[in-house]
């Protein structure tokens, strides 16, 4: 008998080796692709910077320019490069057909107020597709002429001022500015089509559909119009409001008396002799004072005439003073009493004569007796807070029907019949009809 022995690897071991080799190969390929895309991104960014510097040095006027292919030097990158500038001499560089991997590396290089990227519509670039047209801004400025209001864009400008980015947005072909000059809308048949818009792009949808609020502009417009359930309605009950004071006080006006403190009888005899004598019931003024005589009544209300005879009234006055006037005495009655309503850190701002806070209290309140004043509990640091307004807790809308998921009912009409609608007034009370729309669209139509 012969015994034969062989050495080698089992099938499992061979498969394991092949698997490891495959993983290493995939990892190596991914690493090479990653490095190449990053190198291409750096090369493209460097070329774009050179274009920006070259155009900045050559510009001589503030006249805006359209996109022009770069010919001043031969770029190292393989992507077509174009340049443009706006009315404020901001230079922009456009790179076309940038692949997704290179695009992702570029977005990682974005720096606030230094390097920004925009899409072909002039909005910030944030999502890379398989092929991308990317606009470089080396000053962090948005694409378009700078503006703060629509007037800054010019009276003949077919577009609007995008205040979010501070640039003028022109309307594309087939679109026009809306009545409020806030967005571009499609020039649609208003009787059978719905005007839709997204960013500065507009289109028309059949009236039995709704606008897609966020369409993918890189795909066909078939996705820009969405189906809708059409008619919707809600029962509407206007909420009631009530204004009512939450604090009050009883007010009694103080009483005041003015009375002379000294008086003298003054007479002139037939022979022209005059005499003064202290009037009965009054005492002479204390030491250091004299009686300033002026009035013909003890209430000091009427000044004595030059020919007055009889009793003269006045006030005890310091020797160094004149015309001090009769003293005023105020009753010690508490002005406010039985106050209710406010807690710590607040006071009652009293202003009204009724609980509904519709009638302001007169200046003479309490002059002829006790008067209740009403007002609002107010923080000590505030004034005239006004009476609180209470709104009924009734839910204004109920029994709403008609719209599917992701849609809302844009309520607008008081009647609906066979595609004919009449608008509801501001004080409408009852059922409301409307169109099912998707946010943020507000372009409603009478449902068919």
How would you describe what is shown here?
With 448 residues, the chain is mainly beta. It contains 2 helices and 30 strands. The chain has a 5-stranded antiparallel beta sheet with strand order 1-2-3-5-4. α1 packs across α2. The chain is elongated.
Tally of helical segments: 2
* Mean pLDDT reading: 80
Structural class: mainly beta
What is the approximate shape? elongated
Strand content: 35-45%
Number of strands: 30
N-to-C terminal Cα separation, in Å? 98 Å
Which regions are unreliable across 5 or more consecutive residues at pLDDT < 50?
Answer: 1-6
Supply Rg: 45 Å
| Share of residues in helices | 10-25%
Spatial order of the strands forming the largest sheet: 1-2-3-5-4
Largest sheet: 5 strands, antiparallel
Core attributes:
448 residues; mainly beta; five-stranded antiparallel beta sheet; 2 helices; elongated
Task: Give the secondary structure arrangement, pairings included.
Layout: H1 11-58, E1 65-69, E2 81-85, E3 91-99, H2 100-108, E4 116-118, E5 131-137, E6 159-162, E7 167-170, E8 175-177, E9 184-186, E10 193-198, E11 201-206, E12 209-211, E13 225-227, E14 231-236, E15 241-243, E16 247-252, E17 256-258, E18 262-268, E19 274-278, E20 289-295, E21 310-318, E22 328-330, E23 336-340, E24 346-352, E25 370-379, E26 389-391, E27 397-401, E28 408-417, E29 420-423, E30 430-437
């Amino acid at each position: 008998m012969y015994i034969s022995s062989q050495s080698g690897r089992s099938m499992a071991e061979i498969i394991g080796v092949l698997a490891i080799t495959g993983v290493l190969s995939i990892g190596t390929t991914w690493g090479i692709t990653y490095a190449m895309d990053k190198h291409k991104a750096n090369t493209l960014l460097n070329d774009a910077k050179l274009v920006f510097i070259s155009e900045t040095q050559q510009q001589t006027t503030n006249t805006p320019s359209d996109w022009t292919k770069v010919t001043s030097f031969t770029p190292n990158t393989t992507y077509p490069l174009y340049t443009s500038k706006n009315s404020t001499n901001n230079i922009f560089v456009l790179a076309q057909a940038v692949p997704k991997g290179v695009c992702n590396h570029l977005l990682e290089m974005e720096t606030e107020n230094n390097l920004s990227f925009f899409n072909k519509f002039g909005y910030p670039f944030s999502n890379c597709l398989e092929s991308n047209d990317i606009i470089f801004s080396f000053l962090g400025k948005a694409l378009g002429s700078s503006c703060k209001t629509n007037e800054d864009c010019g009276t003949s400008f077919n577009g609007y001022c995008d205040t979010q980015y501070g640039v003028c947005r022109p309307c594309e072909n087939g679109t026009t500015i809306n009545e409020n000059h806030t967005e571009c809308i499609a020039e649609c048949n208003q009787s059978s089509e719905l005007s839709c818009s997204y960013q500065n792009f507009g289109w028309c949808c059949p009236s039995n559909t709704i606008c897609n609020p966020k369409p993918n502009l890189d795909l066909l417009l078939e996705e820009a119009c969405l189906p809708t359930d059409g008619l919707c309605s809600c029962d509407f009950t206007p909420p009631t409001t009530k204004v009512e004071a939450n604090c009050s006080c009883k007010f009694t006006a103080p009483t005041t008396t003015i009375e002379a403190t000294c008086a003298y009888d003054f007479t002139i005899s037939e022979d022209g002799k005059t005499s003064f004598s202290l009037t009965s019931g009054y005492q002479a003024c204390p030491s250091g004072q004299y009686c300033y005589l002026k009035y013909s009544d003890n209430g000091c209300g009427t000044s004595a005439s030059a020919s007055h005879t009889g009793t003269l009234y006045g006030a005890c006055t310091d020797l160094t003073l004149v015309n001090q006037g009769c003293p005023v005495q105020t009753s010690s009655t508490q002005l406010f009493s039985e106050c209710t309503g406010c807690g710590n850190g607040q006071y009652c701002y009293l202003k009204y004569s009724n609980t509904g806070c519709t009638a302001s209290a007169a200046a003479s309140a309490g002059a002829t007796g006790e008067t209740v004043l009403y007002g609002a509990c107010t923080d000590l640091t505030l004034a005239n807070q006004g009476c609180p307004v209470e709104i009924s807790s009734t839910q204004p809308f109920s029994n709403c029907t008609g719209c599917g998921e992701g849609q809302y009912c844009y309520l607008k009409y008081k009647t609906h019949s066979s595609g004919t609608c009449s608008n509801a007034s501001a004080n409408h009370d009852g059922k409301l009809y409307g169109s099912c729309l998707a946010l943020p669209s507000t372009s409603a139509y009478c449902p068919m």
